[in-house]
Amino acid sequence: MAYVTTESVNVYLGTSGEDPLIASLIASAESLFNHLINSNGISQATFTEKYRYPLGGFHSENMWRVFYLDNINPTSVTEVDGVAISSGNYYLEWRKLTLKTAVSYQQTFPHLNTIKYVAGYATIPDDVKLAIKMMVGFLYQSKNANWISSFTQDQLTVNFWWKTQSSIETMLSTDSILSWIIGKYKKTFLGSSGFDRVSIEVI
Fold first, then answer.
1. pLDDT in tens, 81-116
2. Are 112 and 49 in contact (CB under 8 A)?
3. What's the whole-model pTM score?
């Protein structure tokens, strides 16, 4: 699902007659946005994740009740270890999944529990649309080679658009609105490894 339409970006930028260029810049901006939030996208989709265990947790008596899901805005869980799960048997808070009935440590290699769930947005949030439009605006103003907006060959007159003197990274870091939006949707991995995504409950 595209985050914004060509028409909406044209309205935002006040452009017309450049739809192929605008469409290309939208694709680039959306790809860059996904990269900055460490995600393949925020559109609603079904994800399957495998969870390994905290160090020292490889014992058959250990049960697993709390998992931290990777993706933004999880809305429902469909399966745990291949078994369908009903809405009354789990609780979602932010990206924290709590199971009503804990699942057992998997005895067979590679000893991973598997969770299948739905996450993302059926309708793209307005602030994400704004971020994409802002990024398209930057790319549009910077569309000429080497950040140069005009060039006179004979007497070497070079003019720069005011923001193109810095890289995209600098623009992103100095624009507080854009930085806030990216921070809001950034996929952060909990802890230094996958081991931190599971909490043990010994039954």
1. 999 999 999 999 988 899 998 888 777 777 788 899
2. no
3. 0.73
